[in-house]
Amino acid sequence: MNDKLLRLKKNSILRNMCAETTFLSDQLIQPIFISEKVNDKEPIPGLGDNYVLNLNNAIVQIEKDLKNNCRNFLLFLIPAKKNEYDFDLSFHSKAISQIKKNFNDEIFLWADVCLCSLTTHGHCCVFDTKQRIDNDKSLQALSKIAITYADAGIDGVAPSDMMDGRTKAIRSSLDNKNYNLIPIMSYSSKFASNFYGPFRDAADSAPSFGNRKHYQLDYRNKNDALRASRRCAQEGADLLMVKPGLYSLDLLESIKKQTGLMVGAYQVSGEYAGITLSAEKKLLNLNDALYESWHVMKRAGAQFIITYGARKSKELGFSVQ
Ligand code: PBG
Asked: What are phi and psi of 237, to 5 degrees?
């Protein structure tokens, strides 16, 4: 019998004609770390050309990224002062409003909504006096962050804390303030993963005791992960997400089917570092490996991808339209 699989691989024209998975640069989201404590910029080990920036440098970086077809950003804001509950969000307001003032609707600006960069203990929640998670107080704090972002002009919010009921609380707080058109991209199936290491250094958000297994998902459990995404959908999330992305490929199609919503994948810092560090050791080619990893997530069902390499989209041949 003739081998039909070989016949359709003759050259790139035919291979492109047959490519099932293609996407636009706007389907890649670039994280940006901005710290109130950084004077200039600090490298993030393992994350290549990603730095922790001060606000001015972040604006310069976004300007550069825009020229490279990258215009969809996810902000992580790191304030100088930490607290237990009464968080000072003035740096957050300033950063968002200045960026939006500079770029208006040339960019789409998401911001991570979480407490781990704000709390003295580095956990994503508020604790009661007995060191138990105070879910209600956590929701109040998260809602306040979302409103602050909205007041400053954010385009969309991305809650990553994994508290119970956060999507509902944030949605109703936003709606009460007439921010009913601000979308929520929820980290809906987020595991307590070992692959967030480089991020936690950058965001100064490593827990000072224990770990996040009390609130993030157990990576042994698929049903819980599906349930978490279903719940976020019921609570009003507009977009869902799996994280770590490459290690959650098995969930994407099921989440889509069960919720009817679009689901993205977050190629997290540890996954990204695995590729960049291998490339530095000349074990693989960085751009080729990134290109493959993104297509694999797309093939598995990801509508959009959050990746530290989004700013390479032009270099890798993705077009805006
Ligand atoms: C905040 C948050 C984390 C990441 C995104 N938002 C860290 C964590 O949950 O510990 C990880 C992203 C990455 O590793 O690239 N809660």
From this structure: -65, 145
Contact 248, 191 (CB under 8 A): yes
Residue 317's pLDDT is 86
Measure the CA–CA gap between 199 and 69, rounded to whole angstroms. 24
- pLDDT for the residue numbered 7: 85
* 3-state SS, residue 22: coil
Tell me, in angstroms, the distance from the centre of ligand 1 to residue 47's CA: 14
Q: 73: closest CA among 85, 81, 65?
A: 65
Residue 1 is predicted with a pLDDT of 66
Ligand 1 atom at minimum distance from 270 CA? 14
Who contacts 292 (Cβ-Cβ below 8 Å, separation ≥6)?
A: none
| Ligand 1 center–CA 316 separation, angstroms | 26
Q: Quickly count: other Cβ atoms within 10 Å of residue 159's Cβ.
A: 27
Atom of ligand 1 nearest to the CA of 268: 15
- What's the 16 CA to ligand 1 centre distance in angstroms? 35
* Percent of the chain surpassing pLDDT 70: 99
Answer yes or no: is pLDDT of 78 > 70. yes
Between CA 13 and CA 9 the distance in angstroms is 9
The one catalytic residue among 81, 130, 137, 243: 243
- The yes-or-no answer on residue 257 being catalytic is no
Residue 4 has pLDDT above 80, yes or no: no
Q: Mutation test of ligand 1: which of 160, 190, 194, 248 has the most ligand atoms closer than 8 Å to its C-beta?
A: 160
Summarize pLDDT for 127-186 with one digit per residue, the tens.
999 999 999 999 999 999 999 999 999 999 999 999 999 999 999 999 999 999 999 999
Phi, psi of 163 (to 5 degrees): -70, 155
Q: Report how far ligand 1's centroid is from the alpha carbon of 179 (Å).
A: 26
pLDDT of 243-256, one tens digit each?
Answer: 999 999 999 999 99
Contact 110, 185 (CB under 8 A): yes
